[in-house]
Amino acid sequence: MNILITGATSGIGQQLVTDYAVAGHQIWACGRNQQQLDIMASNNVTTLCFDVSNAAQCRELLTGLPVLDLVILSAGVCEYIDDAQQFDLELVQRVFAVNFFGMLNCAQPLLPQMQAGSKLVFIDSMSRLLPFSRAQAYGASKAAIHYFASSLATDLTPRGINVVTVSPGFVKTPMTDANDFAMPTRISVAEASQAIQKQLAVGKQSIYFPRLFGWLLRLLHLLPDAIQRRIADKLKN
Question: What are the pLDDT tens digits along the chain (237 aa)?
């Protein structure tokens, strides 16, 4: 398969590049870290260095590629809001610039090059399921991209392009290593990559992992908003 992966120089994206390349697929690995991209380059890994928050760079480098069978939009950032009463608007804009608009900056030039049978994968987060403390910017950006992707699926399904959402729980990456709170059921990037590959291969359109944690948060998400807020309030203490 021809596979393009953003966020390829760290975390889940990097592991997906490694695993798919070992399996013999042709990979386009996209990221901002040129040094890491140089290390990853090989006969079946072509690297593209750009910032997903820069729409012009995305259009320039993602136009004119061969037909892609699988696109995985994995690039993301996380910043927390420490003072909700005086939140930093620029922080929120930075997070949305990557987690929401960054994915759209990539999807917009890539979609015209995708054909029936291709898969477009958006990686969001289970954080969108509950109103977690300090996660206003991160959770909202992930909720936004999940909704956009789900709505996009409605319009692209008749054209044969499969849109998939991936909602991970805690995965051990440089991003989560910076967290200062408990992260139950945190898994390795290798486990995350295997979960994504396995469920994409069987045609899943909504992917959650770890499985038990995913079921728990989805059940909590079904509760009335007032109860969700009480649960989130207890979790921050």
Answer: 999 999 999 999 999 999 999 999 999 999 999 999 999 999 899 999 999 999 999 999 999 999 999 999 999 999 999 999 999 999 999 999 999 999 999 999 999 999 999 999 999 999 999 999 999 999 999 999 999 999 999 999 999 999 999 999 988 887 776 777 777 788 899 999 999 999 999 999 999 999 989 999 999 999 999 999 998 888 875
Q: Residue 17 in contact with residue 27, Cβ under 8 Å? A: yes
pTM of the entire predicted model:
0.94
In order of their start, the domains of the chain are: 2-235 (3.40.50.720)
87, amino acid identity: F
Please report where in the chains the tokens 């898994």 appear, as a residue. Answer: 187
Q: At residue 128, what is the residue type?
A: R
Name the DSSP letter for residue 114: -
Strand order in the sheet with 119-123: 45-49, 26-31, 2-5, 70-73, 119-123, 162-168, 206-209
Owner of token pair 């408990």: 182
**Distance from the first to the final alpha carbon of the chain:** 47
Sign of CA dihedral 209, 213, 215, 220: negative
